[in-house]
Specification:
Layout lengths: L7 H12 L4 E5 L8 E8 L8 E2 L5 E15 L5 E8 L6 E4 L4 E18 L9 E2 L11 H10 L9
Antiparallel strand pairs: 1-2, 2-7, 3-8, 4-5, 4-6, 4-7
Length: 160
Amino acid sequence: MLQLVPQTLLDELAAKAAASPRLRAHHNIHATPEDPVQRFLVVAHGDSYFRPHRHASRGELALLLRGGVDVLLFDERGCVTARHGVGAGAGHFAYETAPGVWHTLVPASTGCAFLEVKQGPYDPATAVQFAEWAPAEGAASVPAFRAWLRTAQPGDVPSG
């Protein structure tokens, strides 16, 4: 069997993302949550918020297809330990995080599209741990935190 993924799918996902409150859309390539390898496309607009998080027992690999992101790494208290540009014009086209590493993505102002690969099966109870020092999606403090993420550099700690 061969599964082809058309280029037009990214445009369709961009339209869905624009209409989504989260300003992003996903498309699973894998068949079920039980698949041993989870593969999906993500399209996010520039103001999409990815709450800082970690995956305790799994890493993740992302290959940028359009646009770019800044990948920020953090310590346990939310101090930025690294910031890396990935995607268009950044010199890197992919990133891989190790298990247990606190991280987030900050999409470029023009947005981004990427293919993400993680070890399965997917278990929503253990798949992700969100940082307590970062606001939950939809919280009133998200815009200010997102603005901080856009400029945060190694050594910076979120206020509040």
